Amino acid sequence: MTKIALITGASSGIGEATARRLAADGWHVVAGARREDRLAELSASTGGIEFHRLDVTDRADVAEFVDRAVRDHGEIDAFIANAGVMPLSRLDAGLVEEWDRMIDVNVRGLLHGIAAALPHFTRQRRGHFVTVASIGAHQVTPTAAVYCGTKYAAWAITEGLRQECDPSIRVTTVSPGVVTSELADTISDPETREVMRIYRKDAIEPKAIGDAIAYALDQPADVDVTEMIVRPARQR
C-alpha cells in the first residue's frame, strides 16, 4: 500500500528535495506551500506528487490541508513540518515585524501542523511527525537571536510531542546546518546579509536533508530516530 507523506514549505530547498526523494522511494507526496506555481512545476517534473496552496500561519488552512489528504487517501503516514523563514538581524535593528513573521511561521506553523495531524495519527494508532528545526536550535549566533529562539522552540515542542505520544506514533527532529537555500534571501538588514554571505560559504545541498528524513521514515515501526544534526563537514 502506498504511503502518504504531507510536506509543508515544499516549493523550494529542503521541502522540495524531500518531496522528490520520498516520491522516488514510492511515497505519494502531498506538497504544500504558498508559491503554487513552484509546486505545479515540482509536480509536473516528478511523479507521485500532488500539491495544494498552503499558508502554515493560517490554522484553518493547515487543518484543511491535512483533512483533505485524509479524505482523499483514507489515512496519512507522515507529516513533515518544514516551512520556515529566516530574516536575520541584530536585535538593536528593531525589525519587529520580521521577528513576528519568524514566530508565526516557525513556531505557530509547526503547532498548527501538530494540531491538524495528531488527531488522525492518534485515531490510526500510527504515524510519523518530522520537524525540520535548525542548528540554530543548539547554538546562538549574533544576528540570529530570534531565529534561534524559534528553532529552539520547534525542538522543544517536538521533543515534548515525542514524550507525550503513544510509542506507535514516531517523532523526529532534523536540525540542518548550513544548507543551500533561499532562506538567506529574506534578510533585509545589509550588515547581516554580508555576515551571512561569509558564514554560508560552506553549504551542503538540500538533498542531504531529504535523504536524512527518508532514512528516519524508513526505519522499522519499533525504531524511533529521535534527532539528527546534519551539517557541512567544515561547519564548526
TrEMBL record:
<dbReference type="GO" id="GO:0016491">
    <property type="term" value="F:oxidoreductase activity"/>
</dbReference>
<dbReference type="InterPro" id="IPR036291">
    <property type="entry name" value="NAD(P)-bd_dom_sf"/>
</dbReference>
<dbReference type="InterPro" id="IPR020904">
    <property type="entry name" value="Sc_DH/Rdtase_CS"/>
</dbReference>
<comment type="similarity">
    <text>Belongs to the short-chain dehydrogenases/reductases (SDR) family.</text>
</comment>
<protein>
    <submittedName>
        <fullName>SDR family oxidoreductase</fullName>
        <ecNumber>1.-.-.-</ecNumber>
    </submittedName>
</protein>
<keyword id="KW-0560">Oxidoreductase</keyword>
<dbReference type="Pfam" id="PF00106">
    <property type="entry name" value="adh_short"/>
</dbReference>
<dbReference type="InterPro" id="IPR002347">
    <property type="entry name" value="SDR_fam"/>
</dbReference>
